[in-house]
Specification:
The protein is of the alpha+beta class. Helix content is 26%, strand content 22%. The protein is built from 25 helices and 26 strands. 41% of the residues are buried.
Length: 816
């Protein structure tokens, strides 16, 4: 066994409005075969006082795992709680191994090489402060001795895929699953089918799972004719086929893993273009979540009864004759019990339904749920919704285009629409306000709700009727951003799988060549071409602002990863991973700035048809200034006296930096809708100047960083000097600074000032580009001479992001 360990020393104070940022991270080594234990040590305390020392402290340390984009995230679990109201540091220790109850050991078993184990301090509610001064993470693991080898199986190209599909006839392959008993081998045959012809079929929606976890099935090349062969398939497909087969008759199913020749790039791209038609033509889509465990099966039963309590389609209990999982709870019994006790009912009765199920939970369920404050509905639902299926990019088409869809998890079967409804209720503000003391447990990604709300029932829509402006479809960029948190083994699929949902891209036959699915392009070329196509299509550079949704590039620093090198992918191209809320917390999204005076990009510089340098974006504009200093701004002036030019700065500070914790983009799921753009100045003044609660949140946040520890005041720019008409910028030392934030105020070479993302550096260049609503920041990387006799110097830059520059945001500073 080998060990890997990391530790940190250094005092940090965390308030509920601080950005959510790990105190310590450990990257799992590449030679990890399996993790045997994880040990934690943390020295921490809370603010040291409260009204009562009884009960839990609302400060804690969570453990989470940041994973590569193609892996599903793991649950966030509370590791330690501080002793309530005790001013002394306490040394907490814990060790998770195979003897640890279910949820924690299951979490450890899921860890893989490259995962990043994080310790994240958290505080909940105003007045509570979490102090952490040291921490250590140690893992013990079994190293890889040799790579597991899959059993050699016959070439499917020569046997099953010997005949190509006729794309002009919209031909597909179907898998005929032969009948069998539980212990029988899985036997199938392959046949050809033309979409729209007679003969029904179903489709399977699932996760491929681990390629090294394989099982064998018997496969005939054509309708049980000819010799059979034994083939390896992933364990996920094998378990699904074993569960779905009938005892007395065959079942025709389309499964991408077996019905598409995955090694044929051309066939793969052609079938991807037909995916919407395949799933909408299927008589039913079977969603396979896997064999599950006691907690996920309990989650399925709770979902069934929560939904039935609201819609009352079944009497429940012994009277239930519904297909699939039984409605075990009788809704009228719950209603009568509430009426008798006269207790307030929870949102849609979800707590009451959960309590009724809780009395039936066996010990294994309780251990797998693993909530630190006891059993809770959100803890149980996170066990279910952390299934990787809910974050696989392709399942959006598979489920939302289905005529009928059923969800299978082990022996439990429920309707897909039931699951969608309950997820929407769990994500509603009415439900979340009931449990602000719990960590933000992941439910289904928000894109499920946004697509469902926009299109109501995608499976029943003709794309040609909804592709026009004002139709049911969102713009493809909005869909892409909403899908950032979804996962794909191939980054190109993060775009290809979403094209049918975009207003401009929903008709496969009319897709422009630049963004048509093609696996002959590299992933960075796919995303670069999409970015250029969107710029040309919309005559705007707005898409460049959304690079702030990528990890390490948000306006606020959320972890310590360095700004990625330009060789990894074009820094100006939209990324395939990240967070939609970060991407939309930008100047371009929240404000109506017109820095480039309503110009448009020069289309001659972005020629997608003859582009000889696809990883370079050529744009016209001018150099505005160079960053000379990054610093803090001292908020030690009466904000009521701020002049008109600086009110935009105040609005950006409120909306993006969010010092009052009003929107909570940087520390949890966003809780409030944004104000209308036209109302922003009024809303900001009301919150910061007239609303005691808003100003109180800011002062409480400030107090958390300065009231409990002695530290020297920090150098900053005086706000008052920015308001003065003469005398220049003045400096001071102050404690009116939120130390959890990086310096976000800049001074430029020509005297301009403004706000910038944390990744900005001295020497970066502020530019106004044709087609940009906001200024952008570039970082020089090289210059070269092009053109022979008419040679000219061509400068190349990294793209850093957008900028707020006081006095130039409305385009009046200079004619382009």
């Amino acid at each position: 066994m080998k060990e890997s360990s990391v530790e940190r020393h250094g005092l940090v104070q965390v308030h509920q409005n601080c950005p959510k940022r790990p105190y310590l991270e450990l990257v799992l080594p590449e030679d990890v075969h399996s993790v045997k234990y994880v040990a934690f040590a943390v020295s921490s305390r809370d603010q040291g006082w409260c009204d009562s020392n009884e009960g839990a402290s609302f400060t804690s340390v969570d453990v989470s795992a940041r994973r590569p984009p193609n892996r599903t995230d793991l649950r966030i679990m509370t590791l330690f709680e501080n002793h309530r109201g005790v001013p002394r540091f306490h040394d907490h220790t814990a060790r998770w191994d195979e003897s640890t109850p279910g949820a924690k050991w299951k979490w450890i078993e899921s860890l893989q090489p490259g995962d990043v184990v994080q310790l994240v301090p958290r505080a909940t509610y105003q007045g509570w402060v979490n102090f952490i001064r040291t921490a250590r993470i140690t893992i013990g693991y079994q190293p890889i001795t040799e790579r597991p080898l899959l059993r050699n199986t016959p070439s499917m190209e020569k046997h099953i895929y010997a005949r190509s599909l006729n794309s002009s006839e919209k031909e597909i392959r179907l898998l005929d699953l032969q009948p069998g008993e539980a212990g029988d081998p899985v036997v199938c045959s392959i046949r050809f089918h033309t979409l729209g012809s007679k003969g029904g079929f179903e489709a399977l929606s699932y996760c491929w799972g681990n390629a090294n976890d394989s099982s064998e099935l018997i496969l005939y090349p054509s309708e049980m004719n000819g010799p059979s062969e034994v083939y390896s398939t992933t364990g996920s497909v094998f378990m699904a086929l074993r569960q779905l087969r009938y005892r007395d008759r065959p079942r025709s199913i389309w499964i991408d893993q077996l019905c598409i020749n995955q090694n044929d790039i051309e066939e793969r791209a052609q079938q991807v273009n037909m995916m919407t038609e395949i799933y909408s033509n299927a008589s039913a889509v079977n969603i396979w979540l896997g064999d599950g465990d006691l907690s996920t099966e309990a989650g399925m039963r709770v979902v069934r009864d929560i939904h039935n309590f609201s819609v009352r389609v079944c009497k429940g209990g012994d009277a239930c004759t519904c297909f699939g999982t039984c409605h075990t709870i009788i809704p009228t019994n719950i209603s009568d019990s509430i009426d008798q006790t006269r207790a307030p009912i929870s949102f849609r009765g979800m707590y009451e339904i959960f309590a009724a199920h809780q009395s039936r939970f066996v010990t294994g369920v309780r251990e797998l749920i693993g909530g630190h404050l006891g059993l809770h509905l959100s803890e149980l639902m996170s066990c279910l919704f952390m299934n990787p299926w809910f974050r696989r990019i392709w399942v959006l088409q598979e489920a939302l285009r289905a005529r009928t869809a059923l969800v299978y998890c082990g022996p439990e079967i429920i309707s897909w629409n039931e699951l969608l409804d309950v997820n929407m209720w769990l994500n509603s503000t009415d439900y979340r306000f009931q449990e602000t003391f719990l960590p933000a447990h992941p439910m289904m990604p928000s894109i499920w709700t946004s697509l469902r709300m926009q299109q109501s029932n995608l499976a029943s829509l003709d794309p040609r009727d909804s592709s026009q402006e004002g139709g049911h479809h969102l713009g493809i960029l909005d869909v892409f951003l909403d899908g950032l948190e979804l996962k794909a083994t191939d980054p190109r699929d993060k775009l290809f799988a979403l094209l049918p949902f975009g207003r401009e891209t929903c008709i496969a036959d009319e897709l422009p060549l630049a963004i048509r699915p093609s696996y002959s392009k590299s992933s960075k070329r796919v995303l670069a071409d999409f970015t250029k196509w969107w710029i040309c299509k919309n005559k705007s550079l707005a898409i460049l602002s959304y690079t702030h949704g990528q990890p390490g590039r948000a306006w606020i620093r959320l972890h310590d990863d360095p700004f990625g090198p330009p060789t990894s992918r074009p820094t100006w191209a939209i990324g395939s991973d990240g967070n939609a809320a970060w991407a939309k917390t930008t100047l371009n999204t929240l404000f109506q700035f017109t820095a480039s005076n309503a110009t448009i990009p020069d289309p001659s510089l972005i020629d997608l048809d003859t582009d000889s340098d696809p990883e370079t974006l050529k744009l016209a504009g001018f150099n505005l200034a160079t960053i000379t200093e990054m610093t803090y701004i001292a908020l030690n002036h009466d904000l009521r006296e701020i002049s008109e030019p600086l009110k935009d700065l105040l609005a950006v500070w409120d909306q993006i930096i969010d010092p009052c914790g009003h929107y909570k983009v940087w520390n949890s799921k966003p809780e409030r809708a944004r104000e209308n753009r036209d109302d922003l100045p009024v809303a900001v003044e009301r919150r910061l100047l007239d609303d005691p609660r808003g100003l109180g949140e800011f002062l409480d946040h400030l107090k958390a960083h300065w009231a409990y520890v002695r530290r020297p005041h920090l150098p900053a720019i005086c706000l008052a000097s920015l308001l003065a008409t003469e005398g220049g910028v003045k400096r001071c030392e102050t404690n009116k600074i939120l130390t959890c934030l990086d310096p976000f105020f800049f001074l430029a070479s020509n005297g301009l000032v403004g706000l910038c993302p944390w990744a900005a550096r001295n020497g970066d260049i502020i530019v106004i580009l044709h087609g940009g609503n906001v200024p952008f920041l570039l970082r020089p990387v090289s210059s070269e001479v092009e053109g022979g006799n008419s040679s000219k110097e061509v400068k190349r830059f990294e793209f850093v992001g957008e900028y707020f520059v006081s006095g130039v945001m409305h385009g009046r500073q200079r004619s382009l």
